[in-house]
Amino acid sequence: MLINRYKKSGNFSKKRLMVLASTIALILLASASLFYIKYSKETKPISEVISNAIEDVLEPVTVVEKNGNIVCLDPGHGGSDVGAIYKKLYEADINLTVAKDLQAHLENDGYTVYMTRSDDSFVEKRARSTYCNSVNADILVSIHHNTYDADHSVNYSTVLYYKDSDKLLASSILNANSELLEIESKGIVKFDNSLFWTANMPSILSEALFMTNTAEYTQISKSNSARLSAEATSLETGIKNYFENPDGIVASTNNDSITIDRIDQD
Length: 266
Ligand SMILES: [Zn+2]
Description:
Layout: H1 2-40, H2 46-58, E1 70-75, E2 85-86, E3 89-90, H3 91-108, E4 112-115, H4 125-134, E5 139-146, E6 157-161, H5 167-181, E7 185-190, H6 194-197, E8 203-210, H7 214-220, H8 226-244
Parallel strand pairs: 1-4, 1-5, 5-8, 6-7
Antiparallel strand pairs: 2-3, 6-8
Helix pairs in contact: 3-8, 5-8
This protein binds zinc ion.
């Protein structure tokens, strides 16, 4: 019994020793950690720490404001319908180039943009305005380029419309195209075309310049054409003025007798 008690007592002492040693080791480790934390970091007053944390949270972030306006862009022609042709230039291609550039500009401005086509595919004219109706677009902007093979010096800007409620948008875009591209304005033209018949929103067809004009052809036939890029910017300006400064738009004169790209009359 005594031996057993001794043994028990001996075991108990060993355990106590081990617990004591572990506790001391833990205390030393914790002290060393606290010492490290205290002296290894730069100490700052607590008010400064809090104010820095608030600044981190409130740091300004660049956010494009959504203005809620929906624009339906219609690059004219496409697929089997190449539109006007001059030398090796197809109207359908440059219409799409300008439309894609314009789409990027407008999306950057916070507009929501839908495209009746985004590649070289054929879309019926009526299907284009039906599509713009289906996305609840606020405006429809159809992008075309004019041609006149009989005289390569001819160049002017015009915008075609159909309803009276299209006229403000037509004037806004014509004024911007004419001013920024430095081309004579020939006024807006009433145009009875299936593209417009079922459109629920102000709708226009832009003919910013003549692709058959010698000086224009030289510029717009280049790859990454700065001229077509400038046209996207002028269309963007016309669209932004329409939404953001409608009172500042000078009404363009009507010029219904004007000659327009015969292909667009089909
Ligand atoms: Zn066209």
